[in-house]
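Bug #77: duplicate submission created two jobs. Keeping one. Sequence:
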Amino acid sequence: MKTKSFIIASTFLCLSVHVSAQKTVSSNTIKTFKIGGNSDGWDYLTVNPENNLLYVSHGTRVNILNKTTGENLGEIEGTTGVHGIAFIPGSTNGYITCGKLNSVKVFDTKTNQVITEIAVGQNPDAVFYETFSKKLIVCNGKTNNISVINPVNNTVVNTIDVGGKPETAVSNGKGKIFVNIEDKNEIVVIDAQNFTVINHWNLDKEEEPSGLAIDTKTNRLFSTCDKMLVILDSETGKLVKKMPIGEGCDGTVFDDKTKTIYTSNGEGNISVVQEKNANQFIALKNITTKKGARTIALDSSTHDLYLPTADFDDKEKDSRGRPKIKEGTFQVLAVKTIK
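Kept job's structure:
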């Protein structure tokens, strides 16, 4: 994810999990899973549909939580600079990008033990399983390229130069991969059969694309830029619509069943957009979250949303001049959406 949203942690305290609940003004129920420990450093989180558990990146480790109660069920350590976590349908292997190690660690979801490590480009960030090619796609932020991993033998089979910093990527499942290029303010399109770049699409002058989601039925891409959601036709790259969103967004998800787009805004809310059809989109009422909750995961089976954050001390600043994170306050917000 964006550099400004990820702080590297060097040491961690012992972790414990507690659960509390609160109501937002938008009437969406939120549970707070208090993980604790040193709060410096988090990025992506994801629900593994194979075992129904929530995996949360956390500096030098991944926390494994019961997605309903927040109970800490285990940890995977040694993932320095962790960013993304991905899973493969029908497999017991999980994949973690370790930004400071320039590698992807493969672990067994039954034992939580790392079984191998794959060298990729510098600062690997987002990772996902691409269903058309049956490969893992890794965005390498410092080498401006994509590593393609064959999960059958856990080897890199292709490296794709995308000409800029790849922030995150999605697939239409039909042979095309789309990549947000953060420093070039564009989307790069990759042929998933021969792994070559086939298009560069601009984002109508919007800057710093971060989150990216897709509706494969209406062929619509949803790219979150600086305070703006940019919607493109995934077949042609044509601009469909732009809609204002909150500040500090670093992620977005699309709920295919409810046709709803959610953007996680670090200012402390979720922008909600309803897709009525391929060309009609309506802004709904924001969901109030907490400051710092800028990345997001969707549980497609329950429609619940998950966002990591911590508590901040506005009176104290860190080395970058930002509000200091309070020690021991790392947490995940579990949002029960209104359906």
